[in-house]
Amino acid sequence: MLKVDIQSELHYYTLDISFELNEEIGVLFGRSGAGKSTILHAIAGLHTPDNGHITIHDRAVYSSKGINLPPQNRNVGYVFQDYALFPHMTVANNIYYGIARKARPEAKEHIDGLVHALGISHLQSKYPHQISGGEKQRVALIRALAMKPDVLLLDEPFSALDEDTRAEGHQELLRLKNEWKIPMLLVTHNREEGEKLADRLFNIDNGKLQA
Amino acid sequence: MNLDPLWLSLKIASISSVIVFVVGTCIARWLSRRHFTGKNLLESAILLPMVLPPTVVGFGLLYIFGKNGFLGKWLQTLFDLQLVFTWYAAVIASVIVSFPLMYQSAAAAFKNYNPNLENAAYTMGASKIKVFWTISLPLAWPGLLAGLVLSFSRALGEFGATLMFAGYIPGKTDTLPIAIYFSVESGNSQAALWLVLIMVVIGFGTVYWLNRWNKRQSIWITGVKDEEA
Predict the structure, then answer these.
(1) Smallest CA–CA separation between B38 and chain A, in Å?
(2) Amino acid B220: pLDDT
(3) A16 and A47, same structural domain?
(4) Is the pLDDT of residue A206 over 90?
(5) What is the ipTM of this complex?
(6) So where does this one cross the membrane (chain B) (predicted)?
(7) Which helix (H) or strand (E) holds A134?
(8) Which residues in chain A are contacts of B122 at CB distance < 8 A?
């Protein structure tokens, strides 16, 4: 369960938003610059709101009453818009980056399962610039899930992909939702995509939830 | 031929570059993602020696570290240390004049990659130190290395501030550029010619390498050759 209730004074508008999300896909839909990415940043600890609280799995990660966990301690999986794969590391090293050396043998089974399910086993020794956009998106997804996050944040993960690859990505995400049973929050400016994936659709405009 | 000026210059430039590299990298990284009032002022102060005549820098250093300067007095009474007319003074002068070059390269290098790469690492539980060593430093490395080479060359060629602050003491503070000046001054053009040739070779090597390196680094980060980009 993810609970968000935050207010933040930004340059062009005031972010003022409140919602709850169960083990389902919530879609933040709205125009570019409406504040969608800032919400993800706030949940991950990359942006500190002025006011409010954020709870992940009954654990307060932010509260204006004096709680503000750093991103390192929030256990949030984040797929960035441009995937943010480390260009100087192989796919395998990208995926294992967040896992301590000691914990790797233990994590291997779970990660191998993901790598196999998403069909990128043959890419593990490749560098990000050697693989396609769809493959990058999968690597970023696996990397975010590798540390078994309590919540998964996806910032326009499909916007850079061609139509067929995007449709595949949608199917994969829906399958992962059933397997993982964690709140997944996806940002998109594509209405069709939002309606297709969302259990809950949040329409954001000017930093506020629209009815 | 007396090669002592060459060794002295290499020693001074090396020590100065190491200092400038470490301090410049840290300050540039620290400032790169911060916005505060006065940042512009601070950056201008850092870059100032680049646009000032070296003699002005030398005058400033004498003013601060000289017998009656506030740091000079302090060093004298506390450590019985007199910096003026020593090779330490040449190192300080080199650090001040080459620092802006390192800072500029490093600041650009840290702005050159996507900040989400660091954010991604943070969300994966990496500490700030781990992110610096495994993400920031490797990604900024080409620019940092370019800054190191530029500041080394600048330190090697430093003349004005060094002459004012460290003076010309043969065998002690006669760096390459200063030795060239005083060789010509004393009518010994032959000795100066050799030193000049050495400087030209080192300088050409530096620029040639930098040029090649700049073309290679873009391939390394993006996997795309310049011509394709």
Answers:
(1) 20
(2) 54
(3) yes
(4) no
(5) 0.93
(6) 12-32, 44-65, 85-110, 131-152, 191-210
(7) helix A133-146
(8) 45-46, 70-72
* Cross-strand partners of A210: A203
Cα radius of gyration rounded to whole Å, chain B = 20
Instruction: Summarize pLDDT for A127-158 with one digit per residue, the tens.
Output: 999 999 999 999 999 999 999 999 999 999 99
Residues from B contacting A (CB-CB < 8 Å) are 113-114, 116-117, 119-127, 134-135, 138-139, 220-224
**A81 in any annotated domain:** no
Q: Are residues A23 and A114 part of one domain? A: no
Would the CB atoms of B116 and A98 count as touching at under 8 Å?
no
Q: What is the DSSP annotation of B144-201?
A: HHHHHHHHHHHHHT--HHHHHHH---TTTT--HHHHHHHHHHTT-HHHHHHHHHHHHH
Q: Are residues A102 and A194 in the same domain?
A: no
Name every chain A residue with its beta carbon within 8 A of the beta carbon of B121: 86, 97-98
Q: Inter-chain contact A72–B221, Cβ cutoff 8 Å?
A: no
Residues A68 and A131 in one domain: no
The alpha carbon dihedral of A99, A102, A104, A106 has a sign of: negative
Structural domain includes residue A80: no
Q: Is the pLDDT of residue B228 over 50?
A: no
Which chain A residue has its CA at the smallest distance from B138's CA?
A88
Q: CA geometry: angle at A105 spanning A102 and A111, to 5°? A: 120
In the listed set A148, A175, A198, which residue is the last one of a domain according to the structure? Answer: A148
Q: Are A106 and A60 found together in one domain?
A: no
End of a domain among A105, A121, A148?
A: A148
Mean pLDDT throughout B163-185?
A: 91
Residues of A with Cβ-Cβ distance to B139 under 8 angstroms: 87-88
The domain in which residue A61 lies consists of: 1-75+150-210
Query: Minimal CA–CA distance to A84: which of B131, B128, B180?
Result: B131
Query: A201 in a domain, yes or no?
Result: yes
Q: What is the mean pLDDT of residues B4-26?
A: 95
Q: Do A129 and B224 touch (CB under 8 A)?
A: yes
* pLDDT range class, residue B217, cuts 50, 70, 90: low
pLDDT band at A31 (very low <50, low <70, confident <90, very high): confident
Domains of chain B: 4-222 (1.10.3720.10)
Q: Does A136 touch chain B (CB under 8 A)?
A: no
pLDDT given at position A35: 85
Q: Is residue A51 part of a domain?
A: yes
Q: What is the pLDDT of residues A91-119, one digit of tens each?
A: 999 999 999 889 899 899 999 999 998 99
What is the domain count for chain A? 2
pLDDT in tens, B43-81: 999 999 999 999 999 999 999 998 888 888 888 888 888
A52: left (phi over 0), alpha (psi -120 to 50) or beta: left
CATH of the domain at A169: 3.40.50.300
